[in-house]
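Subject: for your reference before the review

Hello V.,

The reviewers asked for a structural picture of the protein, and I figured it would be easier to keep everything in one thread rather than splitting it across files. Below is the amino acid sequence we used in the manuscript, unchanged from the supplementary table.
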Amino acid sequence: MKIATRGSALALWQANHVRDRLRAADPDLAVDLVVIRTRGDRILDVPLAKVGGKGLFVKEIEQALLDGRADLAVHSMKDVPADLEAGLALAAISERADPFDALVSRDGVRLDALPPGATVGTSSLRRQCQLRALRPDVTVVPLRGNVDTRLRKLDDGLFDAIVLASAGLVRLGHADRIVERLAPPAFLPAIAQGALGVETRADDADTIRRVRAALHCESDARRVRAERAVMARLDGGCQTPIAAFARLAGDALELSALVATPDGREVIRADRTGSSSEPEALGVAVAEELLARGADRILAACRAAG
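And here is what came back from the structure prediction:
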């Protein structure tokens, strides 16, 4: 069985995690990694919002599935577009790791204690708009590269602080670098952040069966499905500052989402509770509420600017 993956340290950690789970379920299974460089990996000198398009980190990997070079692909779910390529299926969504963002600063300073004019690195529009809404007096500066590259740029003094996904830091052994977890309601994460997705060919029943048995977490999948329904209804991508977070409360699913202007001056929020058995319906309802409050105007302006 061949697993397609990006080549960064975090992507390889994720692919090896899936490989280990598959082999734990079937010790006789031979599993190899197929490393693929995506468009998002090649373009490092431009903020993601300016690169344009969807699936910047998955398109080439999906092609490897379609042409038979790989049997499954491991993705950070936050990178997976709402619509998969024809002939492919999302076989499993893993148990979710810490879904929140983390502030890492050179001097251990929390976000509210950064001095005016401090430079904070991120190339995510979603992080950018929320940082500016909370701290309009700091300077948000583009930052690309893998986790270790970003930490090195911080340590070299190019930034006073940077914002990264908590899950990535923990997976790569950098949990001690986290100064502050940026959590709801003040700061919403990327849609599906912290979860892994395993994609296969839709007609490969054996691989789908193996992957689901080894990795799928239905409760976290419902949370992810609700968040992704928001993205799908709003036609979200790297050019759109959208955030959403769902949590289970018994049989109910609580979903919060926002759309904001990149400068953080206008933030539109929506919160609803629905049945965990109908996550997509809840996601669509929250997205419709955002649209009714003016999110379509913000999203149109962001796409035009991109």
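For the response letter, the relevant points are probably these. The radius of gyration is 19 Å. Residues 9-25 form the longest helix (17 residues).

Happy to draft the paragraph if you're swamped.

O.
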